[in-house]
Amino acid sequence: MGVFFALVRKQLGETRWPLVVLAASLFAMSWLTVFVTCRMERRFKKETDVAAVMRNRAFLRGMGGGSMDYSSGSIELAFWNHPFLIIAIVIWPIGRASAAIAGEIERGTIDLVLSRPISRTTYLGSQIAVMLIGLLILALALVAGNLASTIYNPVEKPPGAFQLIDPLANLIALCLCCYGFTVFVSAIDIVRWRANLFGAFVTLASYVIHVVANIPSLENVKFLDHFSIFKAYDPVGAFAEGGPKLAFNVEILLAIAAVGIVASFVAFRYRDVPSNS
After folding, report:
1. Any idea what DSSP says for residue 200?
2. CA-based angle 183:12:148, to the nearest 5?
């Protein structure tokens, strides 16, 4: 276990600054969601144009999905579907996955690490642990930004920290899913950019498919949503409803993550590692 924790400390030290930047970015984005919610609630109270109110509500329903009930928490969490926030958080699991094996091979350092009494299982396990620690820090930054912003931007019914647990579980499961299919490519490749490209492409394509499949005027392509991981990502539904639907969505995402991670352990165990000598 001493070797495992030494590897974790080493990798955390190497990635501390990217992690700090991402955490600060997510804190700011979470702050912004509360600020925008506060402004929108004030506009709803003062707006006398019914058509304008309906347009704003249609926008929120499009962002939040069918579970949108226009409460403060639902409006805030609707912006967790915004591509900027999603990109900011999935950078971490995709980046860590591509660096786990292919990145170290590309740097020429993995053979030096494995030449010591360190098993491949321990090495890859430490990489996963670092990703999970970082993901927890990013999730806490989201919650901290939300709670801190509520102090300065009063909304009607601000969600508490415990009410954000279900949406966070859904978001973390999505990140783990992205990690799962990216780390498998990293385990079978020798350069980091291909694993990065694959993870980014699958995530972006899945998001685009989900958006297109949910455009009301394109009912004939709605079946495409079954091929998107974002069908199982519904932070507003997790907040407003929770229960069996949330559990099913999290299970689907974690199942994909588990398949990818297990496959990466198997592939890494039996593959040849190029020597840097």
Report:
1. H
2. 100
